[in-house]
Amino acid sequence: MKEIEAFAEGREGDLAGLLREINEWTGTLAGRMNDLAQERMEGMDAAGVVRARVSGAGRLLGLTIDSRGLRGLDNVQLAEAVKEAIGVAHTAMGDRLTELMADLPGADASAQAGGDPLAPHIARVLREG
Fold this sequence. Notes:
single chain, alpha+beta, three-stranded antiparallel beta sheet
């Protein structure tokens, strides 16, 4: 990722090399996103009454409600429990996405540059015209 780092730092680099690196990076990213889409995550509300299952793409795949726990909930509490279970499952999906992306080449460079790998280049263009 030599060319991507040079670009992120505002240095001159090999444009053809940069495009090759970007193609490799996007291929790796697409593969990881595909892997994530095949995974399944679960979440449960705090009381353990509702369990939600989502795909790695965030789609709700299933919702299970424990009939014994349901007796103690009114309709508003049940709705909150369902939202909580789905939220926990989506959080698990987000955590898994973070894990998959953490070791992608160039992830550290964007974090060090304030989260925007293009910031130095944009600043140089604005400065030099």
